[in-house]
Amino acid sequence: MSSVRELNERIQQESGFIQSIMTETNRIIVGQDKLLNRLLIALLCNGHILIEGVPGLAKTLAVRTLANTIHAGFQRIQFTPDLLPADLVGTQIYNPQSGEFTPRPGPIFSNIVLADEINRAPAKVQSALLEAMEERQVTLGDRTHTLPEPFMVLATQNPIEQEGTYPLPEAQLDRFMMKVIVGYPTRAEERVIMDRMSGETPAPPQAVISPDVILRARQVVNGIYVDEKIKDYVLDIIFATRDPAASGLKDLGTLIEFGASPRATIFLIRAAKAHAFLRGRGYVTPDDVKQIAPDVLRHRIVITFEAEAEDVSTSEVIQQVLNRIEVP
Fold first, then answer.
1. Does residue 215 form part of some domain?
2. Mean pLDDT over residues 140-161, rounded?
3. Beta carbons within 8 Å of 195's beta carbon, 6+ residues apart
4. Burial category of 23 from C-beta neighbours within 10 Å (exposed 0-12, middle 13-18, buried 19 and up)
């Protein structure tokens, strides 16, 4: 195994493109550094993200800008109650001249797919999207078509309107690597947004890397060193959500109905590696785990009615776990 010093040197060389992406995106986007950071982590980990936030917070703009900087294909699909699975994955078109059916791929066949307001589409459409996310392929007729690489789905939800929506079941939410909450910008950031949007329109983002660079970076991320103590720390966090009493957190037992799944363990380690990569390190620290854990666990822990009655949120439960589990 390579030494930590060699790993650090390699990471610093391979992660140089990150600064180019951030420079280009910051020219367009104001105050969404965390969202952009999580988008890059998901891209480096071959994962998908669920984004929740009120309208007008530049969620779509952030995703489109990132896709443009990577010279990757981008498709935005507005989910509505009358959407059909064929509108998403495509269908077969009959050719009367040849007497054969010709596949016509849908918008899912792109590198970065934005599923806008995913909870407004019925279950059939949601399941078609989630199947493509998991299998990374789509079957049209009797033929299976592989989706392009890299492939990432970013689904958005609006938390303020529930009428006419179809909430995603917890089992389907588990397929998303992270759930990111997007908040309002600060006063200073909103002043910059106001000045920028009321003045001359900035030039569109330029492609600074090719998709091949992302695919190569994924191999580098996989090789980042994780100490055995860090692995045990991740397991301590996950198992504390499943059996709080056994982890010395007996008071949380009445607040958690279901703990995090094994997918949480896998994604937490992967995301921690990518977090270290973005900071130019060849090894994972406990801080990498703590920084990314809320986004990985937020949609995987189901709280009890008692917790809801006491106005305790999932984020507060996760924070208590992180604060009380011993850091190596």
1. no
2. 83
3. none
4. exposed
Q: Indicate if the pLDDT at residue 164 is higher than 70.
A: no
- Clarify whether residues 247 and 138 are in a common domain: no
Beta bridge partners of residue 180, listed in sequence order = 51
Local structure of 107: helix, strand or coil: coil
| Cα–Cα distance measured from residue 74 to residue 211, given in angstroms and rounded to the nearest whole number | 12
Give Cα separations from 202 to 36, 115, 199, 220 (angstroms): 19, 26, 9, 34
**Residue 274 C-beta-side C-alpha neighbours within 13 Å:** 25
Give yes or no for residue 73 having a pLDDT over 90: no
Helix (H, G, I), strand (E, B) or coil at 63: helix
pTM to 2 decimal places: 0.88
- Write the DSSP symbol of residue 284: -
Confidence of residue 163 (pLDDT cuts 50, 70, 90): low
H runs (alpha helix) in the chain: 4-14, 16-26, 33-45, 59-69, 85-89, 123-135, 170-173, 187-197, 211-222, 228-242, 262-278, 286-297, 305-309, 314-324
Residues 53 and 195 in one domain: yes
CA distance linking residue 103 with residue 51, whole number of Å: 31
Summary count for the chain: helices (H), strands (E): 14, 11
Which of 184, 199, 214 terminates a domain? The answer is 199
Residue 92 DSSP code: E
What is the radius of gyration, based on Cα positions, of the chain? 21
Residues 96, 175, single domain; the answer is yes
Containing 52, the helix (H) or strand (E) segment is strand 49-52
Residue with tokens 């407004």: 120
Give the number of domains in the chain. Answer: 2
Query: Both tokens of residue 93?
Result: 């078109």
